[in-house]
Amino acid sequence: MKFQRTSPLFYGTVLLGVCGVGAVVAALSILLTANTDDVKLYTQMTPEQVKQEADAIIQAKCANCHGTNPTVNSDLNHLSFGLLQKHVDGAQRSWLIEGDTSLRKKAVDLLKLYRTLSKQHMPPTSYTMVHWGSRLTPYDAKVIAKAYGLPDDKNTNVFVVPIDPAPTPSADQLAKIELGKLLYYDPRLSTTNEISCASCHDLTKGGTDNKPKSEGVPGADGKPQLGGVNAPTVFNTANHICQFWDGRAANLKEQAGGPPLNPVEMGYAKPEDWDDISAKLAQDQDLVMRFAAVFGDRGITADTITEAIAAFEETLVTPDSPFDLYLNGDENAITPDQKAGWETFLAHGCATCHSGAAMGGGSFEYINTFSDLRSQAAPADYQEGAFGRMDFTKDGKHKDMFRVPTLRNVALTAPYFHTGSVDKLEDAVRIMFATQSATPVTDKDITQVTEFLKSLTGRYNGKSLDELTPEDVTPAKYLTPKP
Ligand code: HEC
Ligand code: HEC
Ligand code: HEC
User: Fold this and answer.
1) Angle at which helices 336-347 and 443-454 pack, to 10 degrees?
2) Which H helix or E strand runs over 460?
3) Which of 128, 256, 283, 339 gets the most CB atoms within 10 Å of its CB?
4) Which residues 6+ apart lie within 8 Å of 344 measured at CB?
5) Whose CA is nearest to atom 2 of ligand 2?
6) Contact indicator for 374, 416 with CB cutoff of 8 Å
7) What residue ranges define each of the domains in the chain, with the CATH number in brackets?
8) Which atom of ligand 2 is nearest to the CA of 184?
9) What is the enclosing helix (H) or strand (E) of 226?
10) What tens-digit pLDDT sequence spans the chain (483 residues)?
11) Of the ligands numbered here, which is closest to the C-alpha atom of 437?
């Protein structure tokens, strides 16, 4: 049989041939470009060149919104019905290319970057649709990941690490810690000799008082005065970037100086009042000897008192929660629901802010990213008096930015949020999804994440935190004998 040039068979064969060659060429070119890019990235570029290339990409594709001084073109903004300005505002609130160490640990910025590379949701689609070249290519993502030491695959857990036990103290440190513990339970730090640190941070209650607002020394009406914000836990706070919801204390020592001189909490008011406290403590021979042994001739002062308390607080670490055992390789340490909850927690970006060993404490974040936390968490007649970081810096940009709380032992630390207005963990989780994650979730997701958070209850003094009794933690002299 002879091919007829006009026969369908002839044209069919030619067409097939052309398609085949085209397909091979296309496939080869994709493979080759991917390969040359990879080869270039992994073997031919120095770390400095990778960093330069990554920064050039970020400058070109991200700086319009996340740079230090983004300029919004008013015509374009008008054309986009104001969306551009909204994008820039949102971007400035969540991530800055230069970082801002007064607001975040660098680690948290990198985790956020990794998440956006994993999710491939930056720049926002509504922006790349108009700015074609601004889309991040797979190669771009690889360069950025390599430059910043991030994994180049998706959803690896670089977010949360197990919490290490407090280091075993030397004999000298031990004496300081013991002294700090006595002071932590000592009501003489208050004007009424009735309130100690432990009154509001009870170690048998997850390091909190389980009250919406803490009760301090009585006011003029004879009733306990209430603090303005909920008391956070004292467990695992040593590696927070700073202390308090607004971060006004740089570290635990500085923090410990706060409550005694807080007129609402322990009742003293001015720095000279430390003399009163020191004089009271100096009447206690046991304490005098302990201070001398630990601090030599530095005496009993605000400085030595707070240093000892901080040393004790540094030991308030709760390792070996079921979740830590799981992270360390014991697959069966948590339930299937808790595992599913952990995956949801990762997938929804909860772990960027609640990251590190303490699962929090690494950054200040807005509480109204996608919707306002207060309107969801607090009753309608709720009077707000706390505005987060702004209360300390007086900078309007910092309004509604709060230092992220740790989620360790969170099942024991109700009620929740700085408002102390949410009793159930499940409700707190639901509110967090609404305010911090723009993607929809099911009731099952909420239940599973709540279950997961229950696996974060760790151990202290050899016991699970929810089983601690006053006898396990309280110095003998402050244990009220049972009737
Ligand atoms: C058109 C403006 C715009 C551009 C361009 C843009 N972003 Fe964003 N970015 C936003 C907005 C808005 C948010 C906050 C809302 C959100 O997370 O969706 C955000 C949030 C982020 C966050 C924080 C997310 C988190 O999970 O906490 C990171 C990190 C980020 N962007 C990285 C990038 C990178 C990297 C680029 C460049 C490849 C980029 N963005 C380009 C607007 C932009
Ligand atoms: C009357 C109740 C009360 C007393 C007494 C009290 N605290 Fe607090 N504590 C609070 C409240 C409320 C906050 C949150 C205040 C804020 O952020 O503005 C807090 C915050 C803290 C924090 C910060 C935790 C974090 O995550 O930022 C630490 C640490 C702490 N207290 C330790 C102590 C120590 C040590 C003492 C004794 C010297 C003490 N507290 C006495 C109620 C109290
Ligand atoms: C952008 C950072 C950020 C992200 C993302 C985030 N959180 Fe939070 N989370 C916070 C801040 C800030 C607070 C404190 C809010 C307040 O008290 O007003 C908080 C508080 C909480 C609390 C209450 C803790 C307490 O002791 O009061 C829980 C529970 C919680 N978050 C769970 C989650 C879950 C679950 C997710 C994921 C859906 C999540 N968070 C995502 C920043 C974040």
Assistant:
1) 110
2) strand 459-460
3) 256
4) 441, 445, 448, 449, 452
5) 200
6) no
7) 46-147 (no CATH), 171-316 (1.10.760.10), 322-466 (1.10.760.10)
8) 37
9) strand 224-226
10) 444 555 655 555 555 555 555 555 555 555 555 567 788 888 889 999 999 999 999 999 999 999 988 888 888 889 888 888 999 999 999 999 988 888 999 999 999 999 999 888 899 888 888 787 888 999 999 999 999 999 988 778 999 999 999 999 999 999 999 999 999 999 999 999 999 999 999 999 999 999 999 999 999 999 999 999 999 999 999 989 999 999 999 999 999 999 999 999 999 999 999 999 999 999 999 999 999 999 999 999 999 999 999 999 999 999 999 999 999 999 999 999 999 999 999 999 999 999 999 999 999 999 998 888 988 888 877 877 899 999 999 999 999 999 999 999 999 999 999 999 999 999 999 999 999 988 889 999 999 999 999 999 999 999 999 999 999 999 999 997 665
11) 3
Closest ligand 3 atom number to CA of residue 441: 38
| Ligand lying nearest the CA atom of residue 86 | 1
Indicate if 265 belongs to the active site: yes
How many A from CA of 255 to the centre of ligand 3? 22
| Residue with CA at minimum distance from ligand 3 atom 3 | 353
Report the separation in Å between the CA atom of 116 and the middle of ligand 1, taken as the mean of its atom positions: 7
- Show the ligand 1 pocket: residues with CB < 6 angstroms: 58, 61-62, 64-66, 87, 90-91, 94-95, 112-113, 115-116, 122-124, 127, 136, 349, 352
Which of 214, 312, 403, 478 has most ligand 2 atoms within 8 Å of CB, for mutation?
Answer: 214
Q: Which two tokens stand for residue 171?
A: 């004999």
Query: SS3 string of 188-244?
Result: HHCCCCCCCHHHHCEHHHCCECCCCCCEEEECCCCCEEECCCCCCCCCCCCCCCCEC
Catalytic residue among 53, 215, 265, 313: 265
Closest ligand to 232 CA?
A: 2
